[in-house]
Amino acid sequence: MSDPFFRGELVTWSQVCRLSRRLAEDIRASGYRPDAVVAIARGGYVPARLLCDALGVYDLQSIRIGHYEGGARKNETARCHSPPPANVRGLKVLLTDDCSDTGDTLRLALEQLRCCGPLDIKIAVLHHKKVSPVVPDYYGRRIVSWRWLIYPWALTEDLSGFIAAMQPRPETLDEAVRQLRIRHGIKPPRSAVAYVLALMKQREAP
Questions:
Q1: In this structure, is residue 188 part of a structural domain?
Q2: How confident is the model at residue 184 (pLDDT cuts 50, 70, 90)?
Q3: Containing domain of residue 124, as a range?
Q4: Do 124 and 22 belong together in one domain?
């Protein structure tokens, strides 16, 4: 993300749980009964585990696809950083991620999984962005106007990326909070911003 000013949205744990329950209800209503859930690491770990819990699925596997880094920094291409799951042959698979955005991550994950011989693959995400060319089979919420979604499990990582990209770098907590509001339209807890500033200072120490 080259533009230092872009909209963000803080996603809460309660929203994640609510969307996961909605996803599970939609999946059950559709008649799909997955034998295994495959999480796209890292963003899909938590949604995948919640769906396993709600759907009564015990087979949870993962595939690691890298495309974005903290603070909406995008790599040129999506890449697979782990072997695809080896134990999905003949199974009905639910491929799970936090959101659909460019579609590159989902496309690559699908390609890798199809090589493993599953009986069927369906995709579930918490948030489906309208801009994504890949439309998931199930999604908890559709995002019409693009924004960067900041999930609770990536709050420190994203805030660190946002603040690191600020020029000049904010020197105080008040200034960091103000710049996050101006640049990204978000109001994270002051304690979270203070923690990130302290962590960044610690990491940059000689």
A1: yes
A2: very high
A3: 13-145
A4: yes
